[in-house]
């Protein structure tokens, strides 16, 4: 909504978005993709409506001093949802078939969770038939911000950005947009379930009421949606949600919802009835997660009781603790693994720490007693990640160049603006009938590996993939389809643009935290993150250029002077060998004696020029900053 339209509202009018409620112009998929790539929380997806994401992201970027990107106007193709299964057969035959399927022993899926728990960090690898499918790492000394709830203190309100800046007790101030304060509906991927009985009347509030309700210095309860990334502080919302195994509790909303990923009509009807029958307080709401499909009512009752007890503890901290303070901390990686990854298709969980194993046994028993036997303790002397070949897969996965089985390769570069992925043919082993079929095979394999790399490296934002040029449109469509299939299992939201004739694919991926590279690697202090340094030839040229500047500016009486030049040993080697004749001619031309000395402490781009007669420093050049 523009400030212009908002300012002209009559006092009696309720808040209404610009353009009206019904005739709101639809966003293009490309615009929606750029919104979602910055969205933070990962459950089954965002809980509350994110239709104002573009406006919030624009204000957040302005607050952080980041130049706004111009959205592409190309048509886009969103990643297609999984195709619906065949309609359930009806009658006695269908019932008999379902009974037989339950009685038959379950076939192993090949999916395993391998956990390496150490004193400083915990690593979780999800394997699918010996191949690393997903990887999560958490440092035990790093504060978990995303999904944590804080009692914050409003520092100031910025009406121009329509945002509040809230002190939550950490170094960076949290960003809270007005849209994240106003009441919100559930996200479209959840079907709203009507509550039994009369719904409460939610007080109407508009943007103009926010400065009065939350003036600077007032307390506010908020939840972190997205952790600090770069210059941005954490992004917050007042729309709280606490996830359980099968339900998500909404403490400040009375809405009920069910995941649309549950497609069986009979099952949806059964789960709706269960959700409506749960004793959820009138001023609270809940969402039934995808993991609840096929579960008995008892599981939901137990999950709701745990969530309500958890919220009672949070509420007590809110009432008693002073701001700013954390009143609810998102569980650590061990507990989140049980909550989010322990699904029916997981064959086993292996963990190498006795303490973590005992704790996981207790956690699993609370949510599913029959899954307790899946948790096993790994006690062999060989490191668990080495035993299952995960270490080698990680080394290959996180290198800049990732080789493909076909002989091709991916070259991955992460920058502040985007992630660039280049596909190279390399030494292709296929030997196809023609070049186009060879290129297609490499591109299809590359598309599969790109989807895997995005999850492993936790890369988000704008991603550009430079596939090998394909002349035929049908070939580009095949690669596009392979990307769609690979992205279906990605829990982060993704939007993909069609492959251009040049072989470029633009896509966005939901960014919920920093990538593995950004979070666990420091910038190289030697090259200042550039990845390159000036060559000895370049340094030789710069030294001679600086000498010329000094000698041309000296007085005539200063001829036959001695200059001492201190350089890095590699640069001195260049000056004494390849450039020896140039230095001799230089001395003759300017009637000067040059003495070169090496200093191992000098950076490759650093040198000093000193007057030999009085040891006065004439010039000092250090390495170039970014």
Please, could you describe this protein's structure?
- The model is unreliable at 1-44 and 69-90 (pLDDT under 50).
- The chain starts with a helix and ends in a 5-residue tail after the last strand.
- It is built from 17 helices and 27 strands.
- Helix 8 (333-341) packs parallel to helix 9 and helix 12 (435-457) runs parallel beside helix 13.
- The strands form 5 sheets. A 7-stranded mixed sheet has the order 1-22-23-21-20-19-18, sandwiched between helices. Strands 5, 6, 7, 9, 10 and 15 form a 6-stranded antiparallel sheet that branches. The chain has a 5-stranded mixed sheet with strand order 4-3-2-16-17, with helices on both faces.
- Strand 22 and strand 23 form a beta hairpin.
- It is α+β, with helices and mostly antiparallel strands.
Largest sheet, in brief, is: 7 strands, mixed
Walk across the major sheet and give the strand order.
Answer: 1-22-23-21-20-19-18
Portion in helices: 25-40%
The class by helix and strand makeup works out as alpha+beta
What is the count of β-strands?
27
Helices, by number, come to: 17
What is the distance, rounded to the nearest whole angstrom, between the alpha carbons of the first and last residues? 39 Å
Q: Which value, in Å, is the CA radius of gyration?
A: 31 Å
Q: How much strand content do the residues show?
A: 15-25%
The residue ranges in which pLDDT falls below 50 over 5 or more consecutive positions are 1-44, 69-90
Mean of residue pLDDT values: 81
What is the overall silhouette?
Answer: globular
